[in-house]
Design a protein that fits this description.
Length: 368
């Protein structure tokens, strides 16, 4: 996957209160994949610029990027990282070494200078980070028609994380048991029905979620096992279920219906690479990177429609893991390390200022 990193840093005093911002975009589509921003105390502009670059490169590594074009409006950092200028200042030498070390984990990295007017998003993030560091909430952004408004200027953080405003709270429910899931077989775009156990699991999850007040929507993958689970939840809440294609499970292609061992035996080299590289797809299937991007688009659409409210999301392992990964701001390794049980409940909150909070993961207490 090729991405573009846009990074910036600033200091109000040089040296003075400083911060950085960075964004990662898909090089082909321009889609925003990640944002990073932080206040770094008292520092110079150049130190803040380097810190922004390092943060952007780290985010690219976490996304599994194989090629990066890093764009900055700092001529100094671009020339030094390109090897055309020496890094003479003692305060920047360790930062340059750190940036090169992070970049060494990416197959191809190039650096480009861009004028400041083409680096507005990273510049905004850097300034918002400096404002937050100084205890000033960001100014409200005008809301698009039909969307939730931004947080008002002067609002106070609601927790120690510094998150501002009312979060959109997603209650993430994995579907109930099917014959394929009981046999621990890859189950993607196939559509096996819930077993009797799965139907009881769906009813138990529904009974638990029925205790929630003010749920704005119940949305579901269109696949039958998720739709049946969502129907139980929607019935308990008195909310109509909406099917969203973006919540569908990974397409496992030629591995559909196989066990882990069978897939590994059938395609040993591909299966081994797939386990460690989210850009690799099963034969005729879909990579985890592709899933992550479509789930992100679905999440953004839900926040636009139901900002500041509770939404129940009934889906599958990979989309739910992807939403938790966004909440944790974690890399793709989470996909391989996090376990989600059938009919489990997880909760993640997304705040209007960009913060997020994972409140619950893989809770199955309602199944006891």
């Amino acid at each position: 996957m090729k991405v573009v990193v846009e990074a910036d840093g600033g200091s109000r005093g040089n040296p003075g209160p400083a911060g950085y911002g960075a964004v990662v975009r898909d090089a082909a589509t321009g889609e925003l994949l990640a944002e990073r921003a932080e206040g770094i105390g008292v520092a110079t502009n150049n130190v803040a610029e380097y810190r922004g670059l390092i943060a952007g490169l780290r985010a690219a590594v976490e996304l599994g990027a194989s090629a990066v074009v890093a764009r900055m409006d700092s001529k100094l950092v671009v020339e030094q990282m390109s090897g055309r200028w020496q890094v003479k200042h003692p305060s920047m030498q360790p930062l340059a070494r750190e940036a090169r070390e992070v970049a060494s984990g990416i197959a191809s990295v190039s650096y480009e200078w861009i004028p400041r007017e083409r680096n507005k998003v990273a510049d905004r993030l850097a300034n918002e980070a400096m404002d937050a560091q100084a205890g000033r909430a960001p100014a409200a952004k005008p809301a698009a028609p039909g969307t939730a408004s931004g947080t008002a200027s002067g609002a106070t953080p609601v927790s120690w994380t510094g998150a501002v405003g009312e979060p959109t709270r997603l209650h993430l429910v994995r579907h109930g048991q099917t014959e394929l899931s009981a046999a621990r077989r890859y189950s993607g775009r196939g559509d096996p029905p819930l077993t009797d156990v799965g139907r009881r699991q769906a009813e138990a999850a529904a009974a638990r979620l029925a205790k929630l007040d003010g749920v704005a929507a119940v949305v579901s993958s269109p696949l039958g096992r998720a739709a049946a689970t969502a129907a139980a939840v929607g019935g308990a809440l008195g909310v109509e279920v909406e099917a969203l294609d973006g919540l569908i499970e990974t397409d496992f292609g030629g591995w559909e219906g196989l066990t882990f061992a069978e897939a590994a035996e059938h395609d040993p080299d591909l299966h081994r690479r797939w386990l460690g590289d989210p850009s690799v797809a099963p034969p005729g299937g879909e990579s985890f990177d592709v899933v992550h991007r479509r789930v992100r688009r679905t999440r953004d659409a839900l926040i636009t429609r139901f900002g500041g409210r509770d939404v129940v999301v009934v889906s599958h392992v990979t989309p739910i893991k992807s939403l938790l990964r966004m909440g944790l701001d974690a890399g793709p390794s989470l996909l391989y390390r996090l376990h989600l049980d059938l009919a489990s409940l997880s909760v993640v909150e997304f705040y209007p200022d960009g913060h997020a909070s994972v409140r619950l993961v893989n809770d199955t207490s309602h199944l006891d």
